[in-house]
Amino acid sequence: MNTLSLRSWLLGARPVPDENRFYPLGAILGGLNFLMFFLGMIVIAGGIGISDYYPPEALQMLKPLGNSIFLPFICPWPAFVLLALRGRFKSRLGYYVCTAVIVALTAASMLVVLPQIYIYAYITQNF
Fold first, then answer.
1. DSSP secondary structure string for all residues of 78-124
2. Could you count the other beta carbons within 10 Å of the beta carbon of residue 73?
3. Among 49, 51, 79, 97, which is most exposed with the fewest C-beta within 10 angstroms?
4. What share of the chain is helix, strand, coil (3-state, %, to 5)?
């Protein structure tokens, strides 16, 4: 594929979306962000009693995350806004950049929530 056709494909007009069609990628990304927001609340609530009932080693396992624990609360909101605005982009480049930002925000939330759930399970089973 030569550079001219690649540039015209990326910067060309995006096909007009059909309102009657179901878009699974948007539904999956919206559902994952919705789930990450509520799992983020569970993750923060799960760490409340760790210092009271478990040894200090268990608390030290949770320290490396620091302020990144709040990413599941912050990331879904811009993702929801970008999901709503994604259909308004006329060029393919804008549409795909918007989709890439949504995927990055979802991945950032998942990279915090999923290891944290594993750490809580490890603490409750081994300490």
1. HHHHHHHHGGG--BHHHHHHHHHHHHHHHHHHHHHHHHHHHHHHHHH
2. 14
3. 49
4. 80, 0, 15
Provide the pLDDT confidence category of residue 96 given band limits of 50, 70 and 90.
confident
- Are 105 and 76 a contacting pair, CB within 8 Å? yes
Would you say 58 and 8 are in contact if contact means Cβ atoms under 8 Å apart? Answer: no
Residues in the chain: 127
**Residue 27 pLDDT > 70:** yes
Q: What CA–CA distance (Å, rounded) separates 109 from 87?
A: 23
Separation between Cα atoms, residue 46 and residue 33, nearest integer Å = 20
The overall pTM is greater than 0.85: no
In sequence order, the β-bridge partners of residue 91 are: 13
> From CA 89, how far away is CA 31, in angstroms rounded?
22
Q: Which two tokens stand for residue 113?
A: 């929530």
The predicted model gives 67-84 an average pLDDT of 90
